[in-house]
Design brief:
The complex is a heterodimer of chains A (391) and B (188). With 391 residues, chain A is an alpha+beta fold. Chain A is built from nine helices and 18 strands. Chain A folds into three domains: 61 residues, no CATH class; 154 residues, Clam (outer membrane lipoprotein receptor (LolB), chain A); 111 residues, MucB/RseB, C-terminal domain (Phosphorylase Kinase, domain 1, 2-Layer Sandwich), CATH 3.30.200.100. The longest helix of chain A has 26 residues. Chain B has 188 residues and is mainly α. Chain B is 62% helix and 4% strand. Chain B is rod-shaped. The chains are: A alpha+beta (391), B mainly alpha (188).
């Protein structure tokens, strides 16, 4: 990390005048001394940033580490914001390789992606033996409201990332044979939570790694064989003329606030520091479905709600228990969980550590087995309703 | 020869003293008419004595009670049945107070009570079982039966995460199409 930081510094210093650099170094000498004595671990000190910090008074030089951290965070956030913008505004195509690790085993998926500047994205993933995503998946961001992005780098998620983690610039690197800028997200205890590689030229995300609290990699996403603008070809299947998906535009803040009054369960947050940041609604043949998106900037959990009860027979789902609650897990991805409670069917899809998913399932409503007398009472009421000729 | 007359009934009742009884017996020995009348008087007296005892009355009462409780006949009207039941209960009570009449209630009544108790218990157990079964299928809230549309949810989740929909891991080799190459596989 530190060597990368200096690599970046040297590259950025190449365009500066030697005389100006010498003057800056002389003026920054007290600041360097203070910085060296403070010995802040894990903070890469870039000469150009130190020089900028040393331009001020000697007293100000004592606050250099904090200033540098702020500068590093600002630079990292600026890079991530540019990456989110690039994912929307540029035209590109490539392959996204998504890898997930859980319980010692991993799964990898490769998808082709075509994106037209400011328009739509076509993604095609052919999963053998399963229809899931075998057809081109089309998303649109015409109104710039949908959280469109590559490798999870979107404007709403960056805002949440900034809230929950310390985002720092980690220097230069490479990904997919392309020069890249590296940005890291760290937890409060300083442990590494995620690392992003952003294309040095376009800032488009090229790679992302996410770590759990034990520093194990739980996901690695790569965008490879990337071609930009004039190189990009039209999507051969399911072109941009395809109709958009069934989901309407994201709900506004006022609409989200109004949902509880309409009988929907809308927690403002979920375990693991996940905050509600988006919502959408659609209508199916069995009724309205609400989607609530929760995230801390890295982990994302979608909670789907629909009024009704689970079907008696669920093909492709396996019955299991989480925290004592009976739920059904989609086979074989194990990422989708569903159950019904009090006349509502809940389906959770998660890109999050297993512990977080279990905690989320635990706080959402579940039916508890009724006591003997309650069950008897309910049974007598039902029997009476069955023989009631007016019922 | 004069006959015994009023003295004949006194002789039958044993009310004559020794000399009169001897003269009456001497007359009976020589007079067939008076002997015949004396025999009739004794027979009548014996019948009257038999009517005064209780055994035949008990037998008749028992027959009436059995006739009331036994099957075969048409059921009396409800009011009449109550009257009869009350009457038979009174009769049974009276009979039970008599010595030697303890077995009048009989095994039939006990059997009826057992049947009644068995029927009541069966009804309670049956209703309880039915209620327990009916009450265990969750709240009868309205709403359709739903199988979550995973594919549709997956696309929406991908939009939320800013990533491609993550299809389930596959153990088979990567599939390919003429339009675009794509694959999914499990890692060891």
């Amino acid at each position: 990390m530190f060597s990368s930081s200096f690599l970046v510094s040297r590259r950025r210093g190449e365009g500066r005048s030697p005389l100006l650099l010498a003057a800056a170094l002389v003026m920054a000498l007290p600041g360097f001394l203070v910085t060296a004595c403070s010995s802040q671990p894990g903070t890469g000190t870039a000469p150009n940033e130190a020089a900028a910090a040393a331009v001020g008074s000697v007293a100000a030089a004592g606050k250099a580490p904090a200033t540098e951290r702020r500068t590093s965070s600002a630079q990292a956030l600026r890079l991530l914001s540019q990456a989110a913008q690039a994912a929307i505004l540029m035209s590109y195509q490539g392959q996204e390789v998504v890898t997930r690790w859980s319980d010692g085993s991993g799964s990898v998926l490769v998808s082709d992606i075509w994106h037209v500047s400011g328009g739509q994205t076509v993604t095609q993933t052919l999963a053998a033996g399963n229809s899931l995503s075998s057809q081109p998946y089309l998303s649109s961001d015409d109104d710039s409201q949908a959280p469109e992005g590559v490798l999870g780098v979107t404007a709403p998620l960056i805002r949440l990332l900034e809230t929950h983690y310390t985002v720092v610039y980690a220097g230069a690197g490479s990904a997919g044979n392309r020069a890249a800028q590296v940005v890291e997200a760290r937890r409060e205890d300083g442990s590494l939570a995620a690392r992003f590689w952003l294309d040095d030229t376009t800032k488009l995300p090229l790679e992302r790694e996410v770590f759990d609290s034990a520093s194990h990699v739980i996901s690695q996403d790569m965008f490879i064989q990337v071609r930009f603008s004039s190189q990009a070809q039209a999507a051969p299947v399911g072109g941009p003329s395809d109709p958009p998906g069934p989901w309407a535009d994201p709900l506004s803040h006022a609409q989200l606030l109004a949902l509880p009054t309409q009988g929907w369960l809308v927690p403002s947050g979920l375990p693991g520091g996940l905050l509600l940041f988006t919502g959408a609604r659609t209508t199916t043949s069995t009724g309205t479905v609400l989607d609530l998106g929760y995230s801390d900037g890295l982990s994302v959990v979608s909670v789907f709600e629909q009024r009704g009860h689970l079907a008696t027979k669920l093909d492709g789902w396996q019955r299991t228990t989480v925290d004592g609650h009976v739920i059904y897990v989609a086979e074989p991805d194990q990422r989708s969980l569903t159950w019904s409670s009090r006349g509502m069917v809940y389906t959770v899809m998660a890109d999050a550590p297993v512990q977080t998913v279990d905690a989320v399932v635990g706080v959402l409503p579940h039916d508890t087995p009724p006591g003997f007398w309650k069950r008897m009472s309910r049974g007598f009421v039902r029997l009476a309703s069955w023989v009631n000729p007016f019922g | 020869m004069s006959h015994l007359g009023d003295r004949l009934s006194a002789l039958v009742d044993g009310e004559l003293n020794g000399a009169e009884r001897d003269r009456a017996h001497a007359h009976l020995a020589s007079c067939e008419q008076c002997r015949t009348e004396a025999a009739e008087l004794r027979a009548l007296k014996q019948k009257l004595s038999t009517l005064m005892t209780g055994a035949p009355a008990e037998a008749a009462m028992t027959k009436r009670l059995i006739a009331l409780t036994g099957p075969g006949g048409p059921m009396p009207a409800r009011r009449g049945l109550l009257r009869v039941a009350r009457g038979s209960r009174r009769a049974a009570t009276r009979a039970s107070r008599r010595p030697g009449a303890r077995g009048l209630r009989g095994p039939r009544s006990a059997r009826r009570r057992r049947y009644l108790m068995l029927g009541t218990v069966s009804l309670v157990v049956g209703l309880g079982t039915a209620a327990f079964s009916a009450g265990g299928a969750g709240e009868a809230a309205p709403g359709p039966r739903i199988t979550p549309p995973v594919e549709m949810y997956s696309v929406e989740h991908a939009i939320t995460t800013g990533q491609v929909p993550f299809a389930p891991p596959q153990t088979s080799p990567a599939a390919s199409s003429s339009a675009a190459s794509s694959s999914a596989a499990s890692l060891p």
